[in-house]
Amino acid sequence: MTSVGGVQYSKIAEIKGPLVIVDDVENAAFDELVEVETGEGERRLGKVLEVGNGKAIVQVFEGTTGLSVSGTSARFVGKVMEMPVSKEVLGRVFDGLGRPKDGLPDPIADKFLDINGAPMNPEQREYPKDFIQTGVSVIDGMITLVRGQKLPIFSGSGMSHNILAAQIARQATVVGTEEEFAVVFAAIGVQYSEAEYFRRTLEESGALKRSVLFLNLADDPAIERIITPRVALTVAEYMAFELGMHVLVILTDMTNYAEALREISAAREEVPGRKGYPGYLYTDLSTIYERAGKLNGKTGSVTQVPILSMPSDDITHPIPDLTGYITEGQIVLGRDLFRQGVYPPVNILMSLSRLMKDGIGEGRTRQDHGEISNQNYDAYSRAQEVRALAGIVGKAGLAEVDLKYMDVGDSFEKGFLTQALDENRNLEETLSLLWKVVSNLPRTELTKVKDKYVEQYYRGSDA
Amino acid sequence: MASDTLERTIDKILDQTQKRLGSELDGALAESGKTLDGARAGLEAEYDKIISDGRKEADKIQKQIVGSSDLEARNKQLLLVEEAVDRAFTQALGRISDMDRGDSYAELVEALVREATDTLGSTEVVVYTSEKDRDVVGSVLNGFAGSQLADDIIECLGGVRVVSTDGTMTFDNTLDARISRLKPLIRKQIAAKFGVVN
To answer: Cβ of B167 under 8 Å from any chain A Cβ?
Structure first.
């Protein structure tokens, strides 16, 4: 923060989509913060995208509606965009640019941090291996989330991803430690009703106290969405690496973020990549996702759960495709399960947590965790095959063991997967349910689990 | 004779019926014992579940009540601090506005004009200032070749607004602009006096 202000230029060459092109500009810097002032004195924020040949291209976050070439001026502030941070931001609700939205004054800042974040030294990164309990059985039991991981949720339009996100935000906790836990929730381009649901649900559950909300609504300017995940992650990094807290960042919906990026790219007349998204979509997404992690010598961690709705449920769409390259696994919501009324409708056969194996087992969760999870994957996969077979030959044509696998499929979906919106299951309950599912099978079918665990936990008819 | 036979038959039937009823009662007793034993385990599980659900619910409600009251208290504190900060700010601005326009103020104005002309890259500028500062600024501008004092005055606490002669570039170096840029830091320092931040 400086007392010296920047120069205000009043020669606007062109206004194109979300961009303002300013003429005769000297000494502007890439990414510099710009205050665009309308003839009526209204101020909007923007940043420099390109400088050269005496011109500066400014991206206006709050849109260019109502701006005219004459009467508009742009003040180059002389610094990049910063977010005021302090512990006081906990329990607060901000808009997509980090301005208070809860009727309270600006937080009194401890520091002002560049929203682009400080790059993490790869050498200093610590391998994530500590379990985060979400209270959602399918995640804790079979797609375990660990501190410092980035694990996206791939969903489709109209599915219950936001309800699941809110449930994770309410229930998530680190077990067996006194270290503080916080949730940073960034809603990007969501409907008013959804934003209100997030705020109310956190408030009513008492989780708002340890949460920070950034809400960019669907009718807010699309360009603001470029900033929302960055201000959210800046706050998360401060809390994790300066205050030593374990921070879970939920970003929903990253598809809206990518759409905003496409809008700017089109306005800049860049050569489009797949489906019109810019060629640098991968690089841009990585500047967000790679801000998750844990650092040597620091107590805190930043864990990310970005949510993206796949257009037409297409997992090969550029957004989920490129996200999948950067993140460490994915939780995929299934349309079929959603239609059957299963909540959360997680398709476990397409889901995976790449860091799960290091975050579970003896000393972390429970020694049989990995094996009983594998056994359930195996059994549910077989159940799906048997269901397909039954569709052709009918139930009467199935062997007795195949019928048991069908029961396992039903029991898995109704007993284990299905969970009430306010049901917070601890790990013991989750693992018991996993054992209950496979207890529908004859003992001889449990080939992925050691005999000593079968002896201890199996409750089937031939126990 | 016939009545003896009849009585024996009746006794026999009664005896058999008694035995049958007895064994049926024993069976029913054993059955109900078994059912009771089975039900007890289920009941105990149900009882444990109700207790555990109740604890969870109580825990949830406690978190909710504590969380919302903590937040409410914190928010009230924030509003109070903000009110105090605003009051301190208003008083400070009043003092700045009334400060003596002596030699040291002329030095300050000179520094402000120099900063502005350096940033704009030229001394050929038009300088705007408040009614109160016109004399001070006018004398300071003698040291800046090509600069001119604007006829129009601006509303500000002090300082100058410097505009390039073609009017395309402006550098606002009024005290108001500088205070507004530093306001977040000043707020922090005032709040620290109230013991709210470090």
So the answer is: yes
